[in-house]
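Lay summary. Proteins are chains of building blocks that fold into shapes, and those shapes determine what they do. In this project we predict the shape from the chain. Here is one chain we studied, written as its sequence of building blocks.
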Amino acid sequence: MATNEIIQDIDAVVGETLLTEKEIQQRVAELGQQITQDFAGIATSEKPLIVLGVLKGVLFFLADLMREIDVPNEIHFIDISAAKSSNGHYQDLPNYLEQAINNRHVLFVEDIVDAGLTLSYVSRILYQGNPESVSVCTLLSKEANRIMDVDIRYTGFEIEPVYVIGYGLDFKEQFRNLRYIGVLKK
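And here is the predicted shape, written in a compact code that computers can read:
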């Protein structure tokens, strides 16, 4: 398939359904309840919980998760691809975000933690903003692929090292809109 080719037949791409819409929504609700319990009395209207996600894959999960968190919170995004400089290295934390997280509790939300490289990078730069705390929540974790030691406080599902699409996860920028998570056919 060409990189820019629009894929018409979903059956030609999705091998099996790994997680149904119902399973995802149930687990997202459970994660939201746990986060609410953990930050009750800590996140206030004066100092709401900062919920931070990396664009684009986390969009669906983060939106659903925020609706399940019943403590004051505000949302921010970081675009890792835009943070990469011309020499291939990542830049520092954007100034607006550094100001937003200063002395605040941050919930960093990921769609998937695979090798742990992105999480390791973002965790490192988040501390430049002097947050009070940083907790990580991921929908999917591939522990078997981990090469970086990362601390994940909330995990939706531990999955095998397979390529997954749907619910924000893409293949060639497509299939993010699927309501379930499927395994990409080889």
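What the prediction tells us: The beta strands are 14-19, 49-54, 73-78, 105-113, 133-141, 154-158, 164-165, 181-184.
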